[in-house]
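pasting for the record
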Amino acid sequence: MLRILFAAGLLALPPAAGAAAQQQPSGAVGFPHAQALVDDVVRRNPDMLDVILHVSPQPDAGNVVIAAHLRKANGEASGEDDLGVARTGAPLVEVQKDGVRLGILLQLRDSRHRAIGAVGLMYPYKPGEDVEAVVRRSFAIRDALALRIPSRAALVG
C-alpha cells in the first residue's frame, strides 16, 4: 500500500548549499538526450503537467534537474526527497498542497536496471481519483524511459 502525503511544493526542495557550482543556468537545456526523453513523455501523455529528471551529470557531482517539461527547473539541485527516492527506490506519492496536482517520484533506472537518479511525474488530480492506477501508469512510463537509457553517461553525454 502506498502512503499518500500532502505536500507544499512540487517534487523538489530549494537548491542545497554548494550545489550552485554544479548547476546550469536555470532553464538551460544542457542534456539534449534527457530533454528529448522528457519531451517525448509529455507528447505521449498530454495530460501530464510536468516530468523532471534528477540525475548527477558527473559521477562525483550532486544530483540536479537535467531535464524538465517546465524548463525553468533545469539546473536546480535535487532535494532530499529526490535523493532519497534515487537512493532507496521507495516511491513517493504526494497530493500537492493545492489539492489539484498529484506528484509521483520514482527511482530512475537505465536499461540494465541500475539506479541513476529519480524521475518526477506531475498529474492533474481530483479527490477520489484512483491514485493506484496513476502510480501503475507512472511505473510504466519510468520503465519505458529505462529502455531508452543505456547508462547515466549516455543520458548526460
